[in-house]
């Protein structure tokens, strides 16, 4: 079954909310993408075995992850868990070298 077309809200407040939701959804999607990219970049550096680059990218990823958790796009515990896992990978890379 195809997705149903959304009904047009009758009340002015509902119409405004619909407009706001479009903007908020676009902003959240963009931030979520930025988050995933930051995490992916760190993981690529770890796989490549580039300790210096992984450490540098991890520092940048941490700030992105914190910002997104503060905005409530992801839960704070998810952000902490992801930072912890990335940190462990970077540390394991540093020990292996």
TrEMBL record:
InterPro entries registered for this protein in UniProt: Ribosomal_bS20, Ribosomal_bS20_sf
Alphabetic keyword roster: Ribonucleoprotein, Ribosomal protein, RNA-binding, rRNA-binding
GO cellular component, one term: ribosome
Annotated spans, Disordered: 1-20
Record function comment: Binds directly to 16S ribosomal RNA.
Family assignment from sequence similarity: Belongs to the bacterial ribosomal protein bS20 family.
NCBIfam families named in the record: S20
Protein name from the UniProt record: Small ribosomal subunit protein bS20
Source organism: Comamonas terrae
Gene: rpsT
């Amino acid at each position: 079954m195809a997705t149903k077309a959304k009904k047009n809200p009758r009340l002015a407040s509902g119409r405004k909310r619909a407009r706001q939701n479009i903007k908020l959804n676009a902003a959240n999607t963009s931030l979520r993408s930025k988050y995933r990219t930051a995490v992916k970049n760190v993981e690529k550096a770890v796989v490549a075995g580039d300790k210096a680059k992984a450490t540098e990218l991890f520092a940048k990823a941490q700030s992105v992850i914190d910002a997104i958790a503060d905005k409530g796009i992801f839960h704070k515990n998810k952000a902490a868990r992801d930072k912890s896992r990335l940190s462990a990978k970077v540390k394991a890379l540093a020990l292996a070298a």
